[in-house]
Amino acid sequence: MSDMMKAAETLEKRIDLVEQLTAVDETLIDMIDQEPTRRLSADMRSLLESRAEICEELKTVGFEPWPQPIDVASLT
What we know:
By secondary structure, the protein is mainly α. The chain has helices at 3-32, 38-60. The protein has one domain (3-64).
């Protein structure tokens, strides 16, 4: 595989991951305005865990726009 193809695949992966991250962030923002419930809290925690996983995947493709993702464990 040529370097150009590898670079194109990496860029495509970055774009996909940033889109996923944006979707998670938008969902979290929408949830903030809702009445707090245990279910909502569990859903938000799950989304934060997904967000942390996406951030880790972004690091594997050489993209790290922030020093460290949200530490979900610190929220409990």
